[in-house]
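Self-study notes.
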Amino acid sequence: MILEMKVPSPGESITEVEIAEWLVEDGDYVEKDQAIAEVDSDKATLELPAEESGVITLKAEVGDAVGVGEIVCLIDTSAEKPVGAVANGAEDVEKEEPPKKEEAPKQEVQQKESYATGTPSPAAKKILDEKGIAPAQVNGTGRDGRITKEDAVQAVPSMGTPTGGSRGESRSKLSMLRRKVAERLVSAKNETAMLTTFNEVDMSPIFELRKKYKEEFKEKHGVGLGFMSFFTLACVRALKEFPAVNSMIDGKEMISYDFCDISIAVSGPKGLMVPVIRNAENLTFRGVESEVKRLAIRARDGQITVDEMTGGTFTISNGGVFGSMLSTPIINPPQSAILGMHNIVERPIVRDGQIVIAPVMFVALSYDHRIIDGRESVGFLVAVKEALENPSELLMDNNITKALEL
């Protein structure tokens, strides 16, 4: 029996996927539920499992866009499993002798890469040595390819002319996910009145809390006490105070939410992904850290789903993990605001009339000025700053052990 495998719907509003990689070859024997391909949608990369066991016939190539419901491969379920076949459908390679290496072709390649097979004359060699040019980079015009003095003089690079280094280039097709991200970023720049406001945060109180409680916290809960829980809960508090920041435009209407679904930008193998922490307003420090860890692992392993990346009301992006000092993050549409975190650097600040050295982070809030005014944007960022600089009172209600569930 020949089974026609069709592309399943990976999520609402997705009409086609792109074959990112075939994990099997045409004619392989595959097992039921074995991952046979990775497919890109405009929101995520997903694995395609075999629906039945049998010999597979591929009907699409890598890079092909295949509509949802279209046939992507055939599986002959009546075919018997070949002797020596392993789980991934490949033959037992232990019986095959490794291919012998041939030295001759390598020598030919090396010869082709050289611009000259002759040797330089003494005068030419002196010029080339002075200018730091290898003889192999010069095309000799003398007898048997010998490099003459004139060849060496002409080979001397003029000011600003690059020579000797690699000048190759490569071209690869953008994945469907990367193309969709690009479209959304351009759309956010073109269709929103985006503006960015900045502030700085003295991270000393958070440093002191983490230094004192992080070991006990990790031992009890199995996750680290990172910065994301402080920033997430600080944003939740500020979003409740300034609900316009937790809103978005739909045509001629503004939709405001009484819940906080916080999107967190993470870097995955297929590029930037933005999974969502649902109802962050109901989570504790332990709950936020556990959810951040779970989503980051799923994004790293390519297991994140479309549903886990849709529906956020506000985004936090941490460019500081890559060393960013300051940036203007781009709004994640259809949301109306995004908070950018940056690296923490010891800087001189004034505290109680004295100049002291403190760990300081610059923070940035990009927002859609169509529905968020300056009062709300600046007030929101100040509220975040206040909570981070006084977490014991504003985020922990002056009961640290209870807030950290210790």
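Second protein, same conventions, sequence then structure:
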Amino acid sequence: MCLLSSSVALEKLTLVYCHELIFLEIPSLLQRLSHLVVHDCLNLEVIKNKAPYLYSFEYSGALVRLSLGVSLQNLDIDASGWDVIHYAGAKLPCMVPNLEALNIHSSYVRDILVVPGKFLHLQHLCIGAFTPDYDYLSLVSFLDACPSLETFILSAEPDCMEQESGLGYSFHDLRQMPGHMHRNMKDVQIIGFCSAKSMVELTCHILENSKLLKCLKLSTCYNGEILCSYNNNGKCLPMSRGMMMEAHKALLAVERYILGKVPSTVELKVEEPCSRCNALEI
């Protein structure tokens, strides 16, 4: 506390592996502090910010009590052992009402039922990494709580899926979420798109209820951006046979359920495994 109080010109504060830290309070004297980063401080229990112009906060670690201030506009949480999706829906609309960009990542989540508040100013939402049986269609309630949302990025891990494939179902068997319009959604990207029924349902829902949608990108590879065309060694990341088979089923799901729903005003980009680096031998 004394150290921070004497650092009135501080603009960015980064704390990493500070295991002795239990209570972090940022004093109001730090008028110029705009960026706060806290990573893996194992014993931390509380983060309380009083700096009036904190703009961006990045956190990774276990659940802590947060008080961040109304000036925050960019928030990135990489959760460990707690359901950050439920936490974000329940706590953040009131805690950070001016939030414009939210990135949340967790491997421990349940299905979303209700998001009681609204992210009135949120324009960019990135959600990633779920449990194998996650119901992706439940994310509609989160999207519905973001009336200004323009960009939505979903990152999944298809090789960890334990869900039924949608390939065995007809269009009439797919669930729908009526009454949920995403009026400002323009760009959607799903990294790790697979044939899981709930993911197909979510994709169809977005196409049917996002009237301003301009671009839908479906990558059938997890971490699909690390391809040979971008990698320094000229090779894609290797994929297991199971991952390649799921990517093949995902392409079939796109052909069967998605293509017919894409309006002429929407650009559909489908990214599939590289035939040179990850060819599927049947």
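Instructor comment on the second fold: The chain is about 20% helix and 20% strand.
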